[in-house]
Amino acid sequence: MTLLAGTGPAVCIGEDIDTDLVIAGRYLRTKDRSVWAEHAFEDLDPTLAPRLRGCVLVAGKNMGCGSSREQAVMALREAGVLAVIAPSFARIFYRNCINVGLPVLECHDLVCKDAEMITYDCTTGTVNAGGRSYTCGPLSSRMQEILSAGGLVEYWKGRLSR
């Protein structure tokens, strides 16, 4: 599947998850993204990082609030998160997800449990969880193009090489 659609087990976290909880500042002394991935959510739940590979991260409202650190999104992508779904996102976190090639969907009424299989499609704005279907706003065509390219840098590399 492309970045625009996928399936994986849900990892459910709460609301108002700030970027400091995603990756604590003490790990930002290195640019080694594998270190960031290893310590993702360490202050929230030290057992969470190994469960992120191949998962769909399902959060409550206001996901990614706090500082605008791009490293939080990079840590999630490096940890193997397939997509992030929440009812609302901090604006900069949302855009950072798109910019680094991590699919993100706003879904206001999603109900799911940890490990429940989630299927998402950013082009149609649909999410399926536990046999239930939810409708989210699909990403704009430009956001889809950026995600399909693997993020903003790859998108512009492709456009400039034409």
Write up this protein:
By secondary structure, the chain is of the alpha/beta class. It has one domain (5-160): Aconitase, domain 4, CATH 3.20.19.10. It contains six helices and seven strands. It has helices at residues 19-22, 33-38, 70-79, 91-100, 141-149, 152-160, and strands at 5-12, 56-58, 83-86, 104-106, 117-121, 126-129, 132-135. A seven-stranded mixed sheet has the order 4-3-2-1-5-6-7, with helices on one face. Helix 4 links the parallel strand 3 (83-86) and strand 4 (104-106). Helix 3 packs across helix 4 and helix 5 (141-149) packs across helix 6. It is globular, with a radius of gyration of 15 Å. The mean pLDDT is 95.
Distance between the termini: 25 Å
- How would you write the strand order of the largest sheet? 4-3-2-1-5-6-7
- Please give the CATH class: Alpha Beta
**How many alpha or pi helices?**
6
Second CATH tier, the architecture: Alpha-Beta Barrel
| CATH topology title | Aconitase, domain 4
Helix-and-strand structural type: alpha/beta
Instruction: Pick out the low-confidence regions.
Output: none
Question: Which whole number gives the mean pLDDT?
Answer: 95
Morphology call: globular
Oligomer: single chain
- The Rg value, from CA coordinates, equals 15 Å
The CATH H-level superfamily is Aconitase, domain 4
The largest sheet is: 7 strands, mixed
Say how many strands there are: 7
Strand content: 15-25%
